[in-house]
Amino acid sequence: MKKYDVVTTISYPKKGAMGKTGNWRVFRPILDKDKCVKCLRCWIFCPEATITRHKDDSVDIDYVYCKGCGICADVCKVKAIILEREGKKK
Amino acid sequence: MTEVMIDTGNYIAAKAAVMCKPDVVAAYPITPQTTLVEGIAKYLATGEYKGEYICVESEHSAMAACIGASATGVRTFTGTSSHGLLLMHEMLHWAALARLPVIMCNINRVVGPGWNIWADENDSISQRDTGWIQFYCSSNQEIFDTIIQSFKLGEHEKISLPVMISYNAFILSHTSMPVFVPNQKDVDAFLPNRAPKWKLDPDNPITFGNIILPAEYEKVRLDMQKSHEYAKKLILEISKEWKQRFGRYHGDLLEFYKCDGADYILLSMGAIGAESKAAIDNLRKEGLKFGLARVRCFRPFPKEEILKLSKKADLIVIDRNISPGMEGALFTEVKASLYDNTDAKVCGFIAGLGGKDVPFGDIEKMCKKVINGKARHIEWFGLEGV
Amino acid sequence: MASRYLVEICFHGRGGQGAVTAANLLVAAALIDGNKGVQAFPFFGAERRGAPVRAFARISHDEIHLRSEIYNPDIVIVLDESIMDIVDVLKGLKKNGKILINTRTKPGEFDFSKKFIVATVDATDIALKHEILVGGIPVVNTPILGAVPKILDRVTLKSIQDIVLDKWKGELAERNVKATQDAYDKVEVKS
Question: Is the pLDDT higher at C83 or at C44?
Fold first, then answer.
């Protein structure tokens, strides 16, 4: 849809503007909800905002966009997040 | 003894620059030039580069530092790209009008926005009128050879002008190719130390860049013009001497490829100039008489040679740049060179802006469109149904 | 048109795995083996760790005039199997072309092995075994290069190892050399 009369570079805020970056992962963070103490450190430190915070402060990882940097696992004080190699297990 | 070095265009440029033993390098990093200045910094760390390396806070300062150093009579080198080159703009005029032979690599990159780090010649083309001599290279070997040749050219007593050596972002700056590197002794024999006729010297005080009244100012400009004209001869001589000493030749103002008996001659620059050779080979195989005149030197502009070409062939120009409101810069210059002196037809294409790939197949398509009489005077390849 | 002496290779990997370095090392080795015209270059896109990246190599007996990307490779080298889920690595691969994949899967298990010559090696395992790691992540570029001479007669394992010894020093260089040897011995080719 043509919005303007000239061609220039304007973009609008949108989830996943860089594409589905989840496929960049070499390691996948796995959250153990039983160990999680809802401290929200992972939610604060995730550089890509791929930790989803729920009303009760429980969290989930958005694997569609998580790049697998591992910062969440690193900052988790109770080791509720571990990293596993991506790919088919043999 | 000559050794073969395999590395990217930027690291090859760093090697060439260091072999010219500049006394001062002042530079500010910018993609895709970064590895060039990184390379020189590495040679500083290993002791192979023995001059001063000034880390500055901007490109404007980089050029200002080179100008100051060059005024004291020493040899200077720097490198930049795109927005960095544009930030230098004022200082580029200054270096040329002060007649200081600063030698600089410019890695041709898009000017933003839209933000883009890929190959496009609009950065250096927009510095056309600063008085700098401008080369456009098409291989890593040519980058290496042209840098050393440029010191000799720029520092020549009848030239005394800065020289810009441009090459395409990534396509050359980050592409590894083998390069013959001569030994230091042979480079020294080719390129003697800089011997300026005047310089800033506390023991013999002089003033630079003084006020000059209207009656006199034009003489400064006329002399600069004469030096550019003289450079046309000198570039020929230096290329010849290089060939004799080192056995390599990339053309002088132009590089001719299969132009004998050609009905059509393609003019292009930089990496498209190299890719064009593959297109010419294929067109010749089909019995189509095409040749290539790769424009190696854009300032001074080889207008006499291009006029000569037009007496025998029609011309096709590919520009990886655009002067908005007019057309590709090379196209304009080629046509101006022919004015009133030839019946040759000239067609122009804009291609490869923003780093868009220009493979030989596309170049062949452009050429065939011209033969078939379907090309318009100027076209944007791939955007206008070519 | 590519001359019959020109071999064009595409590398697919992820940022940080060393695809660009692999292309550079391979052509440096090919130069030792007497190929006068060689060229290696990256495709610059999102050059971040983990993002899909491509690199290219050309190997010829003559000077190479081409400066464009490679659209119809003779050989495709995949540094990370998971790339194949998101990138069509076979795109443009010449008829009877070859594909070398870092995987634990056997060549015959790929359905395209009927159409192309497939070679496989578990380069990740080799990198882990010889501790070729950057930031804890296995770097598979040197191991996978060791497998290349098995599918490309223009470059020898000896030259690849010479280049590895030239690029790295001491014990790290030794580990890289051992990794190339390991890959050379373990690669399986099905034609």
Answer: C83
